[in-house]
Each structure stands twice: as C-alpha cells, then as structure tokens.
Specification:
It holds the Pfam family TrmB. By secondary structure, this protein is of the alpha+beta class. The chain has two domains: 109 residues, Arc Repressor Mutant, subunit A (Orthogonal Bundle), CATH 1.10.10.10; 137 residues, 2-Layer Sandwich (Endonuclease, Chain A), CATH 3.30.870. Helix content is 42%, strand content 19%. The protein contains nine helices and ten strands. The protein has an eight-stranded mixed beta sheet with strand order 3-9-8-7-4-5-6-10, sandwiched between helices. Strands 1-2 form a two-stranded antiparallel sheet. The radius of gyration is 19 Å and the shape is elongated.
C-alpha cells in the first residue's frame, strides 16, 4: 500500500478509508471489493459502502471479468476498477487545488495495469466528464472526431473550455474532424495557441458521437440522448481506429473551406 499517497490524498477531501480503497484498487488493477478492502485494511462491509461513494464521485467503476482458474466455468466475477487519476484533477482543479506532484505517481501505478485490454462504461454527465478529462493524461497528438453541438450540450460549454485549457497547459495537440451539420461557426478553429488543427468531413457525413483516439485507448462520448461515455483501453483497437481516422482526415477540408 502506498501509505504516503494515502496521506496526501486526505488533503483533497477524501477520508482515510476512501483514499486507502482508491489506492488499493489502483494498485491491484481489478480487485473484488473484498480484495480491495483487505488491501486497504478495512472490513468488507465498510468496503462496499466506500466503493459506492467512490463510484458516485467518478473515481471507481464496476466491471465484470471472466472467471479465473478454479472458478466455475462461464461465471464472470464482479470487480472494481479505478478510473484514471486524471479524474482527481477534473474534480478539484476548478477549486484551485494543486495535485501535479501526485498525478505522475498515481499514473505510474495505473500504467502498470494498462497493458490488459479492457472496456469501461461511464454513465451520465459525470461519467462523460470523467472520460473526457482522462484523455488529458494521454500521449499526444490526440486524434478526434467531434460533434460540437452535442459536446456543448453535455458536458457543456464551460467544461469544454476547461478541457481546452487543460490541453494548453499540458502541451497536448488535438487534430480534429468535425461535421458542419452539427457545428458552430467560428468556434475552435485551427489555432496554434490552442494546439488544434481542425478539418471538416465531406458534406453529408454527420457525427452524433465524439471520439478521441490516443496511442493506447479510445474514448467515445454519446449525445445526451444516450448519455454515456465508453473508454476502450487496447493498443490494437486504438491503432485500428487511428488508421481509419487517417483516411477520414485525408478526405476532409481545412476549416477555411479549402480542399486538401
């Protein structure tokens, strides 16, 4: 257990038990609640309550995985997984809390668990914000397909401005394709200061979902109608989506309307 990290997380508003469970799940990767509780040094009964609170805050998510050796064939096991530590920044950055010294250390633990492909479903506006801000921890340049009207609906214009500011702070470039049919004029054009290159898809190609592609993960964000985000951690899937995105990028027009 990273006891020093647990102590430092107390300053961010987590209780000692909540911090211990979060670090335990981050360290173990995909534990059951019982396993996480044992690692955190609390009872299983308290563990379920704490896990529920951390899921409500967007720090943990529930998942299932195939039964392990010795378990009944075909019966999946319920586990919990830690959402990216970048969620901490999204939650407390607006309050002026500085956690830059914690993020690399937490990310180092998370990276050790990132080699196994997994799919995470994050529901509601809070889940969408969690998934979006997690991409700030990815290695750039990011490849994007944006539905601007839907992004300004959920997570909303203010959150999107914070996201742009976060990319600037981290030097994270975004190359993005958008559809004019669901866009806003003069909003987020190509801009070196904002580390962004914008192109438009061919006429009639309409996106109602947003996709952000990193080197090892893909984030998909729905419209308010379905109201969810999905993060797929898989280097092979990310490479496939990157190749498809490259084809779309080559067929797009720059944001001044000129063919490329």
């Amino acid at each position: 257990m990273e006891r020093a990290l647990v102590e430092e997380l107390l300053s961010l508003g987590l209780s000692r038990a909540e911090a211990a469970v979060y670090v335990a799940v981050l360290t173990l990767g995909s534990p059951t609640v019982s396993q996480a509780s044992t690692a955190a040094g609390i009872t299983r009964t308290n563990g379920y309550e704490i896990v529920e609170r951390l899921m409500h805050r967007g720090l943990l998510s529930a998942a299932t995985e195939p039964a392990r050796d010795g378990a009944k064939r075909g019966r999946p096991g319920a586990v919990v997984r830690a959402n990216g530590p970048e969620v901490l920044r999204a939650r407390w950055e607006m309050e002026g809390r500085i956690i830059d010294d914690l993020i690399p250390r937490l990310s180092a633990i998370a990276h050790s668990q990132s080699l196994t492909p997994r799919v995470r479903l994050l529901e509601g506006a809070a889940g969408i914000r969690t998934a979006l801000f997690e991409t700030l921890a990815w290695v750039g340049p990011l490849r994007g397909i944006f539905s601007m009207q839907d992004l300004f609906d959920v997570p909303g214009a203010a959150q999107m401005e914070h996201y742009v500011a976060g990319r600037r702070e981290r030097g994270l470039w975004l190359n993005v394709v958008r559809s004019r049919e669901r866009d806003f004029e003069q909003v987020w054009p190509s801009d070196d200061d904002d580390l962004r290159r914008t192109r438009y898809a061919p006429e009639g190609m309409v996106f109602t979902m947003t996709t952000i592609i990193g080197p090892n993960s893909v984030c998909v964000i729905s419209s308010r109608n379905e109201n969810f985000a999905m993060v797929i951690d898989s280097a092979e899937y990310a490479a496939t989506q990157s190749a498809l995105w490259d084809v779309l990028w080559q067929s797009a027009q720059d944001d001044r309307g000129a063919a490329l």
